[in-house]
Amino acid sequence: MVLKLDRSRGCLLGGAVGDALGWPIEFCSLSEIELRYSHGYREAAFNGAVTDDTQMVLFTAEGLLRAYVAVQKSPLWATHAAYARWYRTQTEQYPAEFEPNDGWLLPHQALWDRRAPGNTCMSALGAAGYNPLRADNNSKGCGGVMRVAPIGLTHTEPFETAGRISELTHGHPTSSVASGAFALLIAHIARDQMPLLAAVDAVIGYAAQQEQSGETVEALSLARDHATLGSGRGIPAPLAPGLNGGGWIAEEALAIAVFCCLAERDPIDAIYRAVEHDGDSDSTGAIAGNILGALLGTEWIPDEWLRKLELREVIEQMAADLVAITEGRATSDLAKRYPA
Ligand SMILES: [Mg+2]
Fold this sequence. Notes:
ADP-ribosylglycohydrolase fold; 16 helices; 0% strand; mainly alpha; single chain; binds magnesium ion
């Protein structure tokens, strides 16, 4: 149960590069991608711009870090407050000055760009009160699941915590279960250092014991079966039998990412496969990137991508800070970046 720095970094940087890879084609069908990139999407330049997926991952991490620094604050409360700060970045002008309690993350200007923020997250956070309650909607859009990887890196009850943090914006039980399953998967591969297939099996087994988990268990089981039996070979991920919805909803986004990571031996093949399809490319790319990095660290990520990646230093600092709290370290630097 040790979190190594390279896996923490790999998970967050991998998610960000998957997000950036998917962003230019988030709203394109596969045939539009083929038309637009006549030499193939792999030949297109990686531009490094990240979207709401990476922004919200950073605010999730900030919530966990602030809860740790404050000691008495629950991750749920602190993450709720962190998402309120993200909501500010999407609805207000960049302010002339910041308050000390705004912390270290909020002033990074790139976070204030609107990169197709999810409607459900925006409306739920716009309507949210002071208390961290389950959102008053029945959405299982993938905006609940795409942001919870940091919980798997740090938390001892990742399934339960991620489920509740997902509920802050997405009220459908499948969003909670898929989010819990994703955080548990990250915990198993990054901290327990389980091989991916064994971790997926363990997550399916755990989720199957939970209430209202049918849709998530079915989607993950299909992903595992198609990937391991080879029945998904050579076809775009969402066209694998049973995974044809494009990942706009929670359990599909997770299943598509898991399918791509299991089906491809080469992580670059896996990440491209996770974005080149009709569906929600940046979110499926982000989730796949989180998984690949939690598993492999940072070595698989091309230098050119890292050089161009927006918010890279912020992401790397956050990854190091998450490791510090799993080791029980409390430094004055942490207290400064994450005021209680
Ligand atoms: Mg996005």
